[in-house]
Sequence to fold (633 residues):
Amino acid sequence: MMKLAVGPVLYLWERTDALSFYESLCEAPVDIVYLGEVVCSKRRVLERDDWPDVARMLTQAGKEVVISTLALLEAESELATLARQIDGAPRLFEANDYAAVEYGAGRPFVAGPHLNVYNTSTLNLLARQGARRWVAPVELPLDTVAKLAATRPPGLEIEMFAYGRLPLAFSARCFTARSHNLAKDDCGFICGSYPDGLTLYSREEQPFLTLNGIQTQSASVQNLHPHVSSLRAAGVDVLRLSPHSLGFIDVVRAFDEAVNTMGATEFPEPYLPGGYCDGYLGGAAGIARAAHERGSRAPP
Amino acid sequence: MTLELVCPAGTLPALRAAVDHGADAVYIGFRGETNARNFPGLNFAYDDARSGLNYAHARGARVFVAINVYPGPGNWQAGVDAIKQAADIGVDALILADPGLMSYAAEHHPELRLHLSVQGSATNWRAIEFYRREFGIQRAVLPRVLSCTQVQRLIARTSVEIEVFGFGSLCVMVEGRCALSSYVTGHSPNMQGVCSPAHAVRWEETPDGRQSRLNGVLIDRYAPGEAAGYPTLCKGRFHVNDSVFHALEEPTSLNALDVLPRLVASGVRAIKVEGRQRSPAYVAHVTGLLRRALDSCLSTGEDWTAPRNITAALDHLAEGRTHTLGAYHRPWQ
Fold:
């Protein structure tokens, strides 16, 4: 049975908004919830003491909780936080840097989308370190994922980024602060003003990318909802839905229908500029939209 | 304590130029999708690589081979074959990024010295420790995201030699963690060894000025008389809130000479020059300038400052004819 996962919140939300978001997930048809900060070590979406409470609430609601960890680790303080998170993870942690694999070796973990797994040899290596699930890099075509799935280590689950603005790159530079002429060390948490990131347009006003602190995302939302049956056939076990600030539960419900009842509910219209894309799936440019050219309910 | 000058070569004449002008080591790639400078007409066939190695060894220089893409199942064999070829001609080190290929190299060619490529995205000592413990890497090339202080602290915590970038084009993103190019063109550094590939570039002359597009997306527009650069997509001008500006990075080159004494004092073991796609004349010029800078810095010590004529000559060769310290200098971040 294919499972639905809610990825880590990639933006800086208000504490109350984040708490009510996680409360809403308790009743939502999702199996797995990833918690924790992946983008910026300065952000405090929730207080340190809030996280265990949220994890407990979700676990009691029957969700599997995974603690996601930072993708770009530079400072000693960040490595110390990483160690604390891995030691405190209820069951699984998500490694997004090889520092996490090194520290957590031997413990069960999820190999996150930023570990650059492109072949069977790397996947086997991570399984030997303790990986129980693998989130494919966003640029990997589905036929490559299918090939890796066919020879996967026993018991390893495969997860794909099925919905959300694509996390494309990380930098030392904070682009959101820079766009406001603020220094990174004196950013005033300006990224908190953009609960879905700050859209960057070409000079022809094409929504192109999204600035999210040190992370650069796509402006388009990758939406693999029309492709659920192909994903299932390729051996994908888990679909990751990456949160945005409005109407996210409707997206979860639409995916749940596609996965569990083969229903054909109308998929919510995109509310972020940039619309939907799905090009990576077929090995094309990620920005391309194959299924959506023909309408969001077209067969794959 | 030695400090190695590691220079790029995309062709045999460029390799000779680097060796003749003072490189301690030259790094090259084989033709095809096995390295991060997979450009038409560039890189080494097997026989050229062997000739280059002989030329370098006869003059006391070393040769490293970069096999630094992340091969999928379809080009895994090409990666393995490249490792075999490199081993066969007796290269001095392999520069690898993919843990799977590292695993293969460590198992089948334990005699080969392994360097972790900048494409391996290791930005902290613990990640480097993973590659040392698993594969016995002897050197790591750091992504261009750390400040000088962070480089110093990292070196204090690892037994692996550290190589850093000294001059050349600047990646603003963590190398190996950037899918911007594949998002726009379908081709990326990790998969095909290319960024913003030439086949996707289109130039247009319009009433508003000259425009560059990458797979249809407008990357930049130039006023009449304004110098136009290659449309690397992170160096275009875009619209954010109410401004049009270089929202990610300006067209500029990295030049680390202003912090060279600090890097040397921190224990950096090698200074790398970017640019395997550059001409032999460029490689000769930059190698010669860097050689002079390193020698005078090593003999002067901590009080050394970059001579103005060297900085000016490097600026003349730089992208946008200007330079930055990049992430080495915290305010850049």
Remarks:
- The first strand of chain A starts at residue 3 and ends at 6.
